[in-house]
Amino acid sequence: MPSVSSRTRRAVVTLRKLPAKIKAVFLGLVLVGAAGGAAALVLAPADNSLDASRIIESLSRPQQETDKLPAPALAILPKDLIDPSQTRLLGKSDDYTYYGAPAGDKIYIVPVDSAGQGRSLGCALLKSFEAYGLKTESPDRTEAGWLVVPAGAKRALESVKGEGGWSQQAPNFLVRTNH
Predict the structure, then answer these.
(1) Listed residue (18, 40, 36) closest to 26, CA to CA
(2) d(CA 67, CA 90)
(3) Cα dist from 117 to 1, 35, 90, 138, whole Å
(4) How far apart are CA 60 and CA 71, in angstroms?
(5) Which among 114, 115, 121 has a CA at the least distance from the CA of 87?
(6) How far is 109 from 153, CA to CA, in rounded Å?
(7) What residues does 145 pair with on adjacent strands?
(8) Is 141 left (phi over 0), alpha (psi -120 to 50) or beta?
(9) Residue boundaries of the structural domains of the chain
């Protein structure tokens, strides 16, 4: 079997012996293939799996007054993880107001009672959010909040129709009352 360098030399000699038209076609095919490969690299979508605004759209705009956690609820936030200026209102029920917040590779839900107290947090990894979303219960277990993928609320509601008590509070936020 000839060596690699010997085969390469034979290929170059063979190419030199080809007519000019065939060489041009061959060169064109090589260039088209290279351009196609480069275009595939350029057109590949950016990885936005750690961008929480793909889940909580309001994160793409400045925080509004209604997005701010009440002062008593701020005490529950892990200060080294969640920036209070990043909280956003997700939805409300009669008893709780739900806020969402990104933190690194995670997303949180903070249920806040009518007195402004936050006593629990729900958390999910951003990269695996599409698998289930983020569901959390209030500390007294009277209700639950479920943040789902945008445009996924209808399917999520359908999946829990046997549980009862679920209602859509926002385009991708559901609440279940247990009382």
Answers:
(1) 18
(2) 8
(3) 79, 58, 16, 11
(4) 23
(5) 121
(6) 17
(7) 136, 175
(8) left
(9) 4-43, 52-177
Pairwise CA distance, residues 53 & 59, whole Å: 5
Encoded tokens for 125: 């990894």
Mean pLDDT of the chain: 83
80 falls in which pLDDT band (50, 70, 90)? confident
Task: Report whether 80 contacts 123 (CB < 8 A).
Answer: no
Over residues 128-157, the mean pLDDT reads 91
Least confident span in 3-7, 82-86, 172-176: 3-7
Question: From CA 144, how far away is CA 82, in angstroms rounded?
Answer: 21
Q: By C-alpha distance, which of 90, 67, 114 is closest to 174?
A: 90
Residues in the chain: 179
Listed residue (9, 6, 178) closest to 94, CA to CA: 178
Residue holding tokens 């939805």? Answer: 91
* Nearest-angstrom CA–CA distance, 69 and 85: 9
Instruction: Please state whether 10 falls in left (phi above 0), alpha (psi between -120 and 50) or beta.
Output: alpha
How do residues 7-52 score in pLDDT, each as one tens digit?
Answer: 555 555 555 666 766 655 555 555 555 555 555 556 777 877 889 9
